[in-house]
Amino acid sequence: MELDPEEDLYERVSWDFWKSYKNQDGSIDDSFTMRKAIYFATIDPTLRKEIWPFLLRVYPWASTFEQREIIRNDIFIEYQKIKKQSYSRMKNALKTSWINIENAIIKDVIRTDRCKPYFAGDNNPNIDTMKNILLNYAFAYPEISYIQGMSDLLAPLLSTIHDESDTYWCFVGLMQQQTLFVCTPIDGRNLMEINLNYLRELLKLFVPDFFMHIASLGSDALELMFVHRWILLCYKREFPETITMHIWEACWSHYRTSYFHLFIAVAIISIYGNDVIEQCLPNDEILLYFSSLAMHLDGTIILKK
C-alpha cells in the first residue's frame, strides 16, 4: 500500500505542541502546520475542548486571548437571546410544525449515545441540554430546522465541550461546513447529490473495476445507497470513537481538501470492495455487505490509504 510521504511524520497534537505554536498573546500565526498535524495525527482528547472551536471556526486562528474572550462573551449573549425567543415560541406553540419539530428532537436525543457515560441514566440533564441546543438551532435556522442525524453529530461536541453555549456555536460552525453536512438543500443545491457526483468521479479514477460493476447494475446502484449513512453521519456508526474523531478532525482541518470524507469512502471501497466484484453482488446485497462491516473496518489502514 502506497502511503503519503508525510505519513508518520507527526505525533498526536499535545499540550506542549499546541503551546509552542501560540504567541504570547495567544494568537497562532502558523495555522497551516497546526492543521496539517491535526490531519495526520489527530488531537490529544484533553485538548479537544480548546482546539475544536478553532477548527469549527468559532474563533479565528489569529485571535488573541483577549479577542477570544470578547467573542465568547458576545456569542454567549447572542445565545441567551436565541434561547429566550425560542422558549417564548415553544410556550405559545400553536403551529403543528413546531410541535412536530420538538417531538422529533425529543425522540432522537433520548436514543443518542445512551451507552456513553455522559448521556447514560434516567433524568440525565445532558440529554435536556442536547435537546435545548437542537431546538434553539431549529429556531435560529428555520430554513434548515431539525433533520434526523443532527443529534448524532451534536452528541460528541457536547460531551467534549460541556458548556451549552460553546457547544451550540461549535454545532453552528459544523452545520456551516456545507461539504460535510449534506442533509438538506441550501441555496437550491442538493448537497448530497453534489457529494455523490464527486464520489462517482473518484471511484472511476481510483477504483475503476468497482465503479464498472456498480454501473453495470443500473441507475439505482449508481445512487450509492451504501455510502449515504457514511456521509450523513461522517462515519460515526462505522468506526469506534477514537477512529471516528480522527476522521472528523481530519475533515475539519481542511488540509489539502474540503472533501476528505469522500476519500475515506474511496479507501473503504478500495480495501473491501473486491468481494462485491468477485461475488457479483446485486445492489441490495451491496448495501447489506457494507452495512455488515460497521465497527469491523480497519480504521488505521483506511486513514493511511
How are the secondary structure elements laid out?
Elements: H1 15-20, H2 31-41, H3 48-55, H4 65-91, H5 96-109, H6 125-140, H7 150-161, H8 164-175, H9 191-206, H10 208-216, H11 225-232, H12 241-253, H13 260-272, H14 274-278, H15 283-292, H16 299-304
Helix pairs in contact: 2-12, 4-6, 4-8, 5-6, 6-7, 6-8, 7-8, 9-10, 9-13
Would you identify the regions where 5 or more consecutive residues have pLDDT less than 50? none
CATH class of the largest domain: Mainly Alpha
Strand coverage percent: under 5%
Number of domains: 2
Structural class: mainly alpha
- Report the count of strand segments: 0
> What string gives the helices and strands in order?
HHHHHHHHHHHHHHHH
Taken from the alpha-carbon principal axes, the silhouette is globular
Task: Predict the CATH topology of the largest domain.
Answer: Cyclin A, domain 1
Nearest-integer average pLDDT: 92
Instruction: Using the CA coordinates, give the radius of gyration.
Output: 21 Å
Biggest sheet overview? none
Distance between the termini: 7 Å
Level-2 CATH architecture of the largest domain? Orthogonal Bundle
Q: Which characteristics define this entry?
A:
305 residues; mainly alpha; Helicase, Ruva Protein, domain 3; Cyclin A, domain 1; 16 helices; globular; GTPase activator activity
